[in-house]
Amino acid sequence: MKTLAVVGSSGAGKTTLIERLVDRLDERGSVATIKHLDHAPDIDTHGKDTDRHRAAGAAVTYGIDDEGWFATGDARDLDGILDELTPDHDYAIVEGFSGRHLPAVVLGDRDHAGRELAAAPGADGIDIDSLTERIDDLGPRVTLESLVREIKTAPNADRSGAIATFTGRVRTKDADDDTPTESLEFEAYEGVADERLAAIVDDLEARDGVQRVLAHHRTGVVAAGEDIVFVVVLAGHREEAFAAVSDGIDRLKNEVPLFKKEVTADEQFWLHERA
Length: 275
Fold this sequence. Notes:
The chain is α/β, with parallel strands linked by helices. It has eight helices and 13 strands. It has two domains: 2-136, Rossmann fold; 144-274, Alpha-Beta Complex (Aldehyde Oxidoreductase, domain 3), CATH 3.90.1170.40. Strands 3-2-4-1-5-6 form a six-stranded parallel sheet, sandwiched between helices. The chain has a four-stranded antiparallel sheet with strand order 10-8-12-13. Strands 7-11-9 form a three-stranded antiparallel sheet, sandwiched between helices. α2 (48-56) links the parallel β2 (31-36) and β3 (60-64). α1 (14-25) runs parallel beside α2 and α6 (192-205) runs antiparallel to α7 (238-255). The longest helix has 18 residues, at 238-255.
């Protein structure tokens, strides 16, 4: 799922731009939208802005405030909603949340944490054709659920009796007296990292009994408690699946060139510079 934010001051035309963008992207796939609200409404997500998202073609819309989920059902924050949307949607557009590390379209003079996709004083200054091309170049948001769903569609899935998975996540601390880790940031050696990962997957899939392997490592900023890396194996039996998952994550960590920056409550540093 391609994910981006539209950020800007009130009156800059964020909702107008999202209407235009949803209308364009709806021709290509399913679009979900999430709107940042200054305060949670009393009952429902219905409101003039989220209704405009729907009218433009959004398959689903959510509204959440800084405190998180406000509607009925299990509580979810922004990341929880995005993870839930990932398996079923091709695009997600977030209105607001300028402090999150999402690729962003910036309207007006708004500070933002994510990578800038496009910028203009207002919605009319954004070229939708150019922006759509940049969105298509974004890497997808991947979750364990989306990978498991994909691997179940493999042509030889009927010969497989096991799916084994590994999920690596940002550990906050090793012991009670450790300084808490707030986030990790990953940069991939462009081109080489993808080639190395593809080679590992090919090697694992060549094993007897292994039908399909999927692996994904996030780049950019990953907050404490969030998932970083996934390895999913479809195999004939559990022994083959477990062995391939274990070897896969070991080889990924040892062979794929990724640079890691750690941000703690006290400092920040690139780990390769400390080695």
